[in-house]
Amino acid sequence: MPATSSLRRAFAVIAALPLLTLAACGYGSQADDDTSTQKVAAGAEKIDGLDSVKIGYFGNLTHGTALVGVNKGYFQKALGATKAEYQTFNAGPSEIEALNSKSIDIGWIGPSPAINGYTKSAGKNLRIIGGSASGGVKLVVNPDKIKSLKDVRGKKIATPQLGNTQDVAFLNWIAEQGWKVDAESGKGDVSVIRTDNKVTPDAYKAGSIDGAWVPEPTASKLVSEGAKVLLDEADLWPDKKFVITNIIVRQDFLKEHPKAVEAVLKASVEINKYINANPDAAKAAANAQLKAETGKALPAEVLDPAWKSIQFTDDPLASTLNTEAQHAVKAGLLEDPLLKGIYDLTLLNKVLQAEGESTVSDAGLGAE
């Protein structure tokens, strides 16, 4: 692919953007944790002697495990007298930078920034320690301009960010159609327009894009504006499952405070069990947390279809992460990564066994 070296440099720049720069764009904001759900139970003790555990996540429905956990107090309950502190992000690179700078200890994040963060640090800064969600990504289009998949050629389609998880997936899909696009510029048989999810609906209404390959709830927001779902990315994967959100941790924090990490993972497993057993109540809790953080809840016409399209799972779906990495390599956005050691599922499998659940696989990419 032309300009491969410059593409890789561009991808590296995205991975290394400073947290302060991204914070100026509204990234890295503090979540409201001064609520009754965050009160420490009487007689509770600190875990590993820690005053706090700093947890990061996105204000997206694909991070529903974290949203519900914060809203319902699961993390604080699991951590006892160790305070659960929260920080929200709008982009993966800013969360990776926060992890590197020790602004957070544990985070919910998409596969592409996890891969990037791991490879850029030569495998030294993070581990994926659990799964969280699958699915929740769709190609939605203007039905007046695009009536079939072949009609996507020649159109302007938005993705959230150069090199992010959805951008890589869309570039790979384009290549599978036999079409050509320069990954860095987004120009070619399809115009790939990198647009922040927050402004994508406005861009669609203005007619500056013809569709978007985006996660929920942005996809359903577009549908509420008259777009239609042309393709659900889940249909492209075996068993219709692919990783969209994982749990990561700083390697030094994992080594020094395994009991705290195990507590957060135990909470995550309990949350996912609650979500799957009580989908309506969990959906309401996630929406309530979004309202607490943004001042605005999602309307039912957006929330309901978005929530339904996401599967919450403890399984990190490791084999699909490896496939997504190869898609980035194919697009020219990443050197062939050495992912051996990116996973450490020891504590998760310990929790799952204690809960009588099946253990999960690292697909041969576990730490020695």
What is the fold's blueprint, element by element?
Blueprint: H1 4-15, H2 19-23, E1 29-30, E2 52-58, H3 64-72, H4 74-79, E3 83-89, H5 92-100, E4 106-109, H6 111-120, E5 126-135, E6 137-141, E7 156-159, H7 165-176, E8 191-194, H8 200-206, E9 211-215, H9 218-224, E10 228-232, E11 243-250, H10 251-256, H11 258-277, H12 279-294, H13 300-308, E12 310-312, H14 318-330, H15 346-354
Parallel strand pairs: 2-3, 2-4, 7-8, 7-9
Antiparallel strand pairs: 1-3, 4-11, 5-11, 5-12, 6-9, 6-10
Helix pairs in contact: 3-11, 3-12, 7-14, 9-13, 11-12, 11-15
Give an account of the 3D structure.
Mean pLDDT is 89; it is low at 1-37. The strands form two sheets. A seven-stranded mixed β-sheet has the order 1-3-2-4-11-5-12, sandwiched between helices. A five-stranded mixed β-sheet has the order 8-7-9-6-10, sandwiched between helices. Strand 7, helix 7 and strand 8 (191-194) form a beta-alpha-beta unit. With 368 residues, it is an alpha/beta fold. It has helices at residues 4-15, 19-23, 64-72, 74-79, 92-100, 111-120, 165-176, 200-206, 218-224, 251-256, 258-277, 279-294, 300-308, 318-330, 346-354; strands at residues 29-30, 52-58, 83-89, 106-109, 126-135, 137-141, 156-159, 191-194, 211-215, 228-232, 243-250, 310-312. Helix 3 (64-72) crosses helix 11 (258-277), helix 7 crosses helix 14 and helix 9 crosses helix 13.
